[in-house]
Design brief:
By secondary structure, the chain is of the alpha+beta class. 38% of the residues lie in helices and 14% in strands. The protein has a 5-stranded mixed beta sheet with strand order 2-1-3-4-5, sandwiched between helices.
């Protein structure tokens, strides 16, 4: 029996007859990534996904493992030019471009920082962010701003469009979105197409309902801003929440 070397997941490297179709469907890189996420994949499996296909006698995984061994590991890819990549067995111009694009994206991501989207200090800050987005809309848009523990804006999401009432804006939608982005607190806002930002009884009732739900899940509702035509009202400042 031919000797076998093994990857991180025990897949044979030596057999030129070993093909992707021989791997159980649930063990293939793409399927594993869909099921378990990218973090569960080995370097070779991730590289195989970028390569997409192998050759007639070699699977993409086999090729990826061979390349990683030949270049001394994943970091070796960084220094390879397009020309050098195409000299590797099984790597043509198309695959070389795919690899370099993936490497470049990773390097750019490593250099980026979260954008300074601003810190919310007051209702005016919220109005400045949303006034031009909402003041001319012909339907009511309910928007949530999600903040971290330092009141930095980390996300914004429109959760409903239409008449504002309890059946359209439900606490579970607000806090599901807040939990998804690991938000510490929420500021709600919506527009009044009439241009008059005076809160309606429905606005007040819905806001109090959100505040009660926020206390249960541990995510504060800091304010609810109603946007009119160049004007706004803070329910917090009005003592309505």
């Amino acid at each position: 029996m031919a000797s076998q070397k093994h990857s991180e997941r025990g897949i044979a490297l030596d057999s030129s007859l070993f093909m992707l179709r021989d791997i159980p469907h649930e063990e293939r890189p793409r399927e594993r990534m869909i099921q378990y996420g990218a973090g569960a994949l080995s370097h070779a499996e991730l590289l195989a996904i970028l390569l997409r296909t192998g050759t007639r006698h070699e699977s993409a995984i086999h090729m990826a493992q061979r390349i990683l061994i030949g270049i001394g590991g994943i970091r070796g890819l960084i220094d390879f030019s397009l020309e050098e990549l195409t000299k590797l067995k099984g790597i043509g111009p198309a695959k070389a471009v795919q690899l370099k694009a993936g490497i470049e994206l990773g390097q750019r991501l490593a250099k980026t920082r979260l954008p300074d989207t601003g810190t919310v200090h007051s209702p005016r800050d919220v109005a400045d962010m949303l006034m031009e987005q909402l003041r001319y809309l012909q339907k009511e848009h309910f928007v949530c701003l999600f903040l971290n523990t330092k009141n930095h804006l980390i996300a914004q999401e429109t959760l409903s469009i239409g008449s504002l009432n309890a059946s359209i804006v439900h606490p579970r939608e607000v806090f599901r979105a807040a939990i998804k982005c690991s938000s510490a607190s929420v500021i709600c806002a919506h527009n009044h197409p009439s241009g008059d930002p005076t809160p309606s009884p429905e606005d007040i009732a819905m806001t109090r309902r959100l505040c009660e739900a926020g206390q249960i899940v541990g995510i504060d509702v800091l304010d609810h801003i109603v946007i009119g035509d160049g004007e706004f009202v803070s329910l917090k400042e009005q003592g309505l929440m």
